[in-house]
UniProtKB/TrEMBL annotation:
<keyword id="KW-0436">Ligase</keyword>
<dbReference type="InterPro" id="IPR023631">
    <property type="entry name" value="Amidase_dom"/>
</dbReference>
<dbReference type="Pfam" id="PF01425">
    <property type="entry name" value="Amidase"/>
</dbReference>
<keyword id="KW-0808">Transferase</keyword>
<dbReference type="InterPro" id="IPR000120">
    <property type="entry name" value="Amidase"/>
</dbReference>
<dbReference type="InterPro" id="IPR020556">
    <property type="entry name" value="Amidase_CS"/>
</dbReference>
<protein>
    <submittedName>
        <fullName>Glutamyl-tRNA(Gln) amidotransferase subunit A</fullName>
        <ecNumber>6.3.5.-</ecNumber>
    </submittedName>
</protein>
<dbReference type="InterPro" id="IPR036928">
    <property type="entry name" value="AS_sf"/>
</dbReference>
<dbReference type="GO" id="GO:0016740">
    <property type="term" value="F:transferase activity"/>
</dbReference>
<dbReference type="GO" id="GO:0016874">
    <property type="term" value="F:ligase activity"/>
</dbReference>
Amino acid sequence: MEPFELPLAAAADAIRARRMSPVELVDSVLDRIDKTEPHLGAYVTIVAEQARRAAGEAEHEVAHGRYRGPLHGIPMGLKDLIDVSGMATTASSRVRAGHRATADSTVAARLDAAGAILLGKTHTHEFAFGLTTPQTRNAWNRDRVAGGSSGGSAVAVASGAATFALGTDTGGSIRVPAALNGVVGLKPTYGLVPRHGITSLSWSLDHVGPLTRTVEDAALVLTALTGRDPRDPASLSVPASDYRPAAGTDLTGLRIGLPRTYYFDNVDPHVEAAVRRAIGRLEALGARLVEVDIPMTRYIQATQWGLMVPEAGAYHEGSLRTVPELYQEDVRILLEASELMSAGDYVRAQRSRTLMRAEWARMLEEVDVIAAPSVPMPAVGADEETVTWPDGTVEGVSDAYVRLSAPANITGVPALTVPVGHDPAGMPIGMQLLGRPLGEPTLLRVGHAYEQTQPTRALATVA
């Protein structure tokens, strides 16, 4: 196995035991980037020489007994909404031409302190306002969408062009590309990971979290990211935690909510079959299935858009009026639509969210985790704009991809997507686990237990 193929935990063990140096790992991943990047376009910027220097420094530190922990010497990508001092944060937009960050974001600073090594910035759908990331191609099939808006991060991890990456998630933008590219994606509880220094799409819906090869890897990254930062008003004060799940697959006594409504409506049959098989596997590990009704489903889409569009419009108000021509047409139209929404619309969306959070809290008193599809269909063709369901319903691709992920953003509950197979065309399928606020340990335990019963997943083969 080549170093670039190693998941984070295995690479960390090898570095700590000095069976492999950070220089070997970083060189292997950079060589992989040289092979994959012309085909996939995961990165906006690659800082190869900087990464090599950092790897040499990490090698020296480890050799002299200054090992910082499991992220020390591990190469990563950061979504290009995340500030790194001295580097551009382009948000994959012409609006940001010439931009340079003057300081590190909180998460970049914490990863640097943990010894992680930056490879570069990964593509996002422009200003994170989309679910396809058109600049980047799916790691499993270049003719399919990568998912968005953290498409570059997901594709980099899936193809071996980063050992882990960070993304942001406002309506599913970590989980959607993770599911479509066959990797793990975690949207933490709202406020658990500070967002200071990250370009916003929607203040009250934005989250930042890891994309990794395994659930254990996601836990290792999350451990380095949490902790209050007063510069983010939503940041939570929580005790420092080691989120790494314990070994073992026994889920006896755990109650898993199986949705009767919403999550299995208008879902590709291959997706439904794969997710139900995975849920059956959790039941075989000792979990008890409890059917649940998802509350207030008729209000989900209106609430999501009623919050996101006005907040995005407010953030972009100045540049939208001065340089509208620099935005891509799809994003510009969505931002302009914000001017058609009234203050009353926004207040009603906020009230709806308050009620929805209360109803979800009641539902989550009855179960420990909800298991459902991450997205209703695998990655579609890059030119496909709509999907037609068997009942004749025609749905926009972006609307379809956000549909099953938006509830976790509205309510702020944590959500984890785990690969659970492929469709007949070889495209990945993901299962989503949702839990109570600050219930990450339970989600990670369940996802890790499932993962241990499955064969080791291979990286995407890039032609």
